[in-house]
Amino acid sequence: MQNCAANYRMLKEITLITVTNLGLSFGGQELFKDVDLKFTPGNCYGVIGANGAGKSTFLRMLSGELSPNKGDIHITPGERLAVLKQDHFEYDEYNVVETVIMGHKRLYQIMKEKDEIYMKPDFSDEDGIKASELEGEFAELNGWEAETEAEKLLTGLGVDKKYHDKIMKDIPPSDKVKVLLAQSLFGNPDILLMDEPTNHLDFRAINWLEDFLPDYEKTIIVVSHDRHFLNKVCTHMVDIDFKKIRMYVGNYDFWYESSQLMSRLLKEQNKKKEDKIKELQSFIARFSSNASKAKQATSRKKLLDKINIEDIMPSTRRYPFVGFTPEREAGKDILAVEGLTKTIQGQKVLNNISFTLNKGDKVVVLSKNDLAKTTLFKILAGEMEPDSGTYKWGITTKVDYLPNDNSEYFEGVKLNLIDWLRQFSIEKSEAYIRGFLGKMLFSEQEPLKEASVLSGGEKVRCMFSKLMVSGANVLILDEPTNHLDLESIQAVNDGLIAFKGTMMFSSQDHKFINTIANRIFEITPAGLYDTLTDFDDFLENDELQKRIDEMYQ
User: Fold this and answer.
1) Does an H or E element contain 97, and which?
2) What is the pTM of this model?
């Protein structure tokens, strides 16, 4: 046991990636400069930063896909690096298990070379010697267990065994994501680079990954907008800010809370330095104590205990403000839905859906079929007619809707942001309109930009300005955190927790759901499953999940 502990300590002291004096500029614009970092085994590093800060670019540099303008990235020779692929069509002609094994390039190459030699009609002595050498290396790389390991990863991520022998193009798109994730994990690479690994994954697959990665004794570097995921798996945060890249011990919540605390303390210029230090020390001690209860916590707590006050930096990033003030309080009757059914292009996406929405409900709507959620929301927002069934809003309700696809609000629109938002507001004064745009970080000359030229994140922030001026007491939100950075997600999360009205929403963000929802709907082919269970309990209740799975059969 002592030898194992000693080996692990030695492993932690090895540096797999060393970044020295790194700098990168695009078209004269400097993304970051003078970056010095070390990445060691046994740790998971979460890369964070505002949209456009260069998170994905940094990962591309670490992988060797992109060269820096200045400095050096050194990877210890002989270490295997794996990258989560983003092209879901790259392996369409390959078998699923074979696609996973391709994650270990050398092993896959050996397998192909062996097959070619053994298929030769004129097998020579030289071929026999070469085959023997390949067989030896194949065994060293644990090749005989390759298919078993690949299938184990696929099963863990929720890819049904019936798809394991199929061609990639013949499996569901949601499973392609899981196959590529299994590919990156295959063969225990020494360095694992993952850009948004939870995108398009269902919650079960994310939970499996959250359990898998903390026990992974190699080096993981990940970009993610999923705060729950970053909190579960990360030992360090790598923050791109001030045109610098700095590394901090702890998970996302520790980085966020400590950064916010430091910002507040710096603003309080009259506060004694000694008081600031005591408050920061108290915060670090409190967080370290909480960390001791989590997985991988003993080593993480030791890291946190070593933090100096000087290690904590305030962030330059700005956070929007999201707050909703209903024009009036809704009465008791909110919404009654009876037998809603809808078929789209031959697919029945809603089947006899019935429920009553109560005052104060904050309902998350889940489904393996994203179209089902969006269809329900469109019907309730009056943008689509059901094939059968009825719904009735209470007479005191005022409903506003955030669609998943907001393109119709912006495409071809020649209005600046002030005039665009003015369309949806009873109060028309420029000062009033600018106030709501300012809350979503459109300040100074930015409100004079044309609505049609906005980025995806800017459009969503405009849509939240629209929701805020509406005075609605009922909100329907279809994937409200899509295209938003972590700062905006946090602001929306806080605003919806504080919202006193009633809402229905869909989301892939675990923390977002867990902190907002007080009721859960799951739309299945057999109908609606409705429960008041807490979201974490909902996911962890095997009996409940079994019942829901049966409704999908």
Assistant:
1) helix 96-101
2) 0.87
